[in-house]
Design brief:
CATH topology of the largest domain: Hypothetical protein af1432
Shape: globular
Strand content: under 5%
Number of domains: 2
Helix content: 55-70%
Distance between the termini: 19 Å
Largest sheet: none
CATH class of the largest domain: Mainly Alpha
Radius of gyration: 18 Å
CATH architecture of the largest domain: Orthogonal Bundle
CATH superfamily of the largest domain: Hypothetical protein af1432
Structural class: mainly alpha
């Protein structure tokens, strides 16, 4: 919350912001690695935390700090929950990278904003999984577990993002799996829904997804060329960056 207060302080500057982040060794290392990653790659890598924040911008540094810290806060001694937490983190990373690639392809939304939206769409899922430790019957039944998560994740995710002051992203978890979303002006939630379909390829839940061409969001972004072959090509193209970000976000 210190980071949020600093960001909302009109007198805050990069020096003060870097001082607050610098109090956490793990977070500092993460911000430096991220600023030197493929997403922000330039000829001259940042040498210190201040220059890394300048490279990424204070607001995006804040978002990425939340993404990193949130992954180390939720834990469980239950082996099944730990396995599901890891799967959730990996899926969110994949969703973030594909969202970013789609944003670059459509040129309708900032790629970095799309990446963050992808990271945060399932932000409520880890808290739900930990709560299921008290409801082992639901935890052990995949159908019940998915139904429980699908019902609660939009509400819990919206609550968490509101607490963090990320009001501009509230529609992202709110419309999780809302395949019929059909706003007059397509925006970030629609893009991430299309990315989610791509990210779910190869999972058991993919069978419950609608065909891309039946989604209003798919047509509003003029993504008609992304049939099965091009979808697989997109996933191959994003693999290097996916692996890179996955390494960065692993606590």
């Amino acid at each position: 919350m210190q980071i949020l207060k600093a960001l909302n302080n009109p007198n805050c500057n990069v020096k003060l912001f870097s001082k607050i982040i610098g109090n956490d060794v793990g977070l500092t290392a993460f911000i430096l690695k991220t600023a030197r990653s493929l997403r922000f790659l330039t000829r001259t890598p940042p040498k210190d935390l201040e220059s890394a924040i300048v490279r990424m911008g204070m607001k995006e540094t804040y978002y990425l700090s939340l993404a990193f810290l949130s992954r180390s806060v939720v834990s469980s001694t239950n082996l099944k929950i730990r396995e599901l937490l890891k799967e959730t983190q990996q899926f969110s990373t994949k969703l973030a990278v594909i969202s970013c690639f789609l944003a670059e392809k459509t040129r309708r939304l900032p790629a970095n904003q799309a990446m963050l939206g992808g990271l945060f769409q399932d932000i409520g899922v880890p808290a739900i999984l930990v709560t299921l430790e008290k409801h082992l019957d639901v935890l052990g039944d995949p159908q019940q577990r998915i139904a429980c998560i699908d019902y609660l994740a939009p509400k819990v995710g919206e609550h968490i993002l509101r607490q963090w002051g990320l009001d501009e992203l509230l529609d992202v978890p709110r419309n999780r799996k809302n395949w019929a979303l059909d706003e007059e002006q397509a925006g970030l939630p629609e893009l991430i829904l299309v990315a989610r379909i791509h990210a779910m390829i190869g999972t058991k839940e993919f069978k419950a997804c609608p065909p891309l061409f039946k989604m209003p969001a798919f047509h509003k972004f003029n993504l008609g060329e992304l049939g099965p072959d091009n979808t697989l090509e997109l996933l191959k193209e994003s693999k290097e960056e996916l692996d890179d970000i996955q390494r960065l976000l692993t606590p």
